[in-house]
Amino acid sequence: MSSTNSLEKEILKYQKKGFKVEATKTLKHGSKNVLIKRGGLFGTDEGIYIYYVEGKASDDAIREFFKDYSKFCNGESENRGFFLSAWQVDEKRFKELKILAVDDDDIRNSTKLLIVEKPSEIEKEQARERIKDENEKEDQEKTQLSTLSKDVFIVHGKDHSTVKELQVVLFQLGLNPKVLHEQASGSRTIIEQLEKCSKVGYAFVILTPDDVAIEKSVYQKIANKPEELKRNIHDRARQNVILEFGYFMGLLTRNRVCCLHKGDIELPSDMHGIHYIKFENSIEEIGSIIVKELKEAGYKIG
Predict the structure, then answer these.
(1) 3-127: CATH class
(2) SS3 232
(3) What is the mean pLDDT of the chain?
(4) Residue range 65-92: average pLDDT?
(5) Residue 99's pLDDT band (cuts 50, 70, 90)
(6) Is the pLDDT of residue 118 over 90?
(7) Domain ranges in the chain?
(8) Taking the complete model, does pTM exceed 0.70, yes or no?
(9) Reduced to 3 states, what is the DSSP secondary structure of residue 174?
(10) What are phi and psi of 210, to 5 degrees?
């Protein structure tokens, strides 16, 4: 079983219990995946925090997990945190750092170490190569931080009001938001227009509930049952938005792409490690988080 599949399997386990992925984000030493179940035990929200590290888990990764998980808990008792490691974790050291890093007994007792089945030597070597490649890419990105373009691309669907709100926020921060339909096409195809915008420094992807979807096998069973259809249909973004999302992920790397999604909407699968930021009605709700994301990407703001 690959380590990535193990993370997805762990997430899927809680999704089947009614939890929804609220945020995924790459931290310095690992990645965090946050799932929330609204109105769970005794009517309160329940949170699952999964920290994942590929390869050998360092002391810094373990400390990062406890520090970020403690912030996530914020005094709430209905939360659980899991440290999911691909391989090689010193369990004794993990327990020692738990005692040193966490003062709150409730938070300390709500955490658990999960170790994926030990991989073969080939899988270990593949993991080392991936980590090496990621470190080299990170070094390259650091050298580019001082010259980040102020051009920021906005990928969006049919909800143009959210686009305008994000444009206002970015203008106020001294950046230059670019929207595809506002650019001169010059008889170019859509993909050619996207390529022309490839020198941007950052991209925001806005997922809004423009379409609905249902699994075909489910639809075939309940096509003539309106009430069941209503319960099984879910909102999703336009497919061209997902395509452009993937394009900028490959172009800019995940550290310079941020996804904003409106309400409970289907999120792309197999794209863990991206930071998804939820808003209900207006981009203004998440203005401070947008500023934080840009700063972490290397932009000098405020």
Answers:
(1) alpha beta
(2) helix
(3) 82
(4) 78
(5) confident
(6) no
(7) 3-127, 145-296
(8) no
(9) coil
(10) -90, -25
286-301 residues labelled b (16+ CB within 10 A) or e (exposed) = bbebbbebbeebbbee
Q: How confident is the model at residue 1 (pLDDT cuts 50, 70, 90)?
A: very low
Query: Quick check: 210 pLDDT over 70?
Result: yes
Coil, strand or helix at 111: strand
> Is 270 strand, coil or helix?
coil
Nearest to 106, CA basis, from 131, 75, 133, 65: 75
Task: Output the six-digit token pair for 207.
Answer: 């997922």
The candidate with the shortest Cα–Cα distance to 81, out of 70, 95, 89, 94, is: 70
Cα separation, 70 vs 136, in Å, equals 31
Q: State the Cα–Cα distance between residues 146 and 123, nearest whole angstrom.
A: 36
User: Which residue in this structure is represented by tokens 């997922």?
Assistant: 207
For residues 46-70, b (16+ Cβ closer than 10 Å) or e, as one string?
bbbbbbbbbbbbbeebbebbbebbb
Quote the CA–CA distance of 16 and 14 in Å, as a whole number.
Answer: 5
Q: Residue 39 carries which DSSP code?
A: T
- The pLDDT of residue 184: 65
Q: Nearest Cα to 244, choosing from 169, 187, 190, 163?
A: 190
102's tokens: 């966490």
**End-to-end Cα, the chain, rounded Å:** 46
Tokens of 260: 């904003």
What span, in angstroms and rounded, lies between the C-alpha atoms of 232 and 132? 43
Quote the pLDDT of residue 186.
65
User: Which residue matches tokens 């010193």?
Assistant: 90
Query: If you count DSSP H runs as helices and E runs as strands, how many of each does the chain have, helices first?
Result: 11, 12
Convert the pLDDT of each residue in 157-186 to its tens digit: 999 999 999 999 999 999 999 998 777 666
**Given this model, what pLDDT does residue 2 score?**
47
Contacts of 291 (CB under 8 A, 6+ apart): 173, 301, 302
Domain 145-296 part of CATH 3.30.110.40? no
State the pLDDT confidence band at 146, using cuts at 50, 70 and 90.
Answer: very low
